[in-house]
């Protein structure tokens, strides 16, 4: 039985971001994973967490999925704080990673190869105000042809640095101006088919 950790990174803003869509998407992920006979654990960062318990959840999980809104082209600051606390504790405890992978004795060892999370998978699921057309199109002003995965490398690099396999991300687009929640849910279900 696969073990799945879902991290809901939503941060509430009065009159702007209540978190309903991110909760819906986190619930869909949970339901789909349980339907695949996975054991699921959830963390809602905004509700509080114990750092050592979160390290243990990362050690326990085979698959880690972060569900997050995109605020100013990144995850909310509470998620960055969570990552800093969990991964730094995991480094100090030497259980998520040992070091950056390099050694003075073996210059062929590359930066980012000191992780201990081999065999685990990481996926990012996002809700964007940006339209789908803003990505992977060289004619688009802001992202200049970059994909969502390119834009979010700073997030996924944390997990890759620790040895996890990075899965393709999922995105709900244009959620403020042209939401299509029913279609997004169906697309997410299709995206999750090959996660386990």
Structural notes for this entry:
The protein is α/β, with parallel strands linked by helices. It contains 6 helices and 6 strands, in the order βαβαβαβααββα. Helix 1 links the parallel strand 1 and strand 2. Helix 1 (20-35) runs parallel beside helix 6 (181-191) and helix 2 packs across helix 3. The longest helix has 16 residues, at 20-35. The chain is globular, with a radius of gyration of 17 Å. The N and C termini lie close together (10 Å). 31% of the residues are buried. The mean pLDDT is 93.
Write the layout of secondary structure elements.
Blueprint: E1 3-8, H1 20-35, E2 39-44, H2 51-60, E3 63-69, H3 77-92, E4 121-127, H4 148-151, H5 153-161, E5 165-166, E6 170-172, H6 181-191
Parallel strand pairs: 1-2, 1-3, 3-4, 4-5, 4-6
């Amino acid at each position: 039985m696969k073990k799945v950790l879902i991290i809901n990174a939503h941060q509430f803003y009065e009159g702007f971001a209540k978190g309903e869509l991110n909760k819906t998407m986190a619930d869909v992920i949970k339901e789909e994973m349980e339907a695949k006979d996975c054991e699921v654990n959830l963390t809602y960062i905004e509700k509080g967490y114990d750092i050592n318990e979160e390290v243990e959840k990362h050690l326990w999980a085979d698959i880690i999925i972060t569900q997050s809104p995109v605020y100013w082209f990144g995850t909310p600051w509470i998620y960055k704080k969570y990552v800093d606390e969990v991964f730094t504790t995991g480094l100090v405890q030497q259980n998520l990673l040992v070091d950056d992978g390099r050694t003075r004795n073996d210059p062929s060892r590359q930066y980012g190869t000191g992780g201990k999370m081999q065999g685990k998978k990481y996926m990012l699921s996002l809700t964007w105000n940006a339209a789908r057309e803003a990505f992977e199109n060289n004619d688009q002003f802001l992202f200049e042809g970059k994909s969502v995965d390119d834009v979010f490398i700073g997030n996924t690099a944390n997990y890759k640095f620790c040895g996890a396999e990075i899965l393709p991300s999922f995105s709900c687009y244009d959620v403020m101006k042209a939401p299509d929640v029913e279609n997004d849910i169906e697309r997410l279900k299709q995206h999750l088919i090959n996660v386990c």
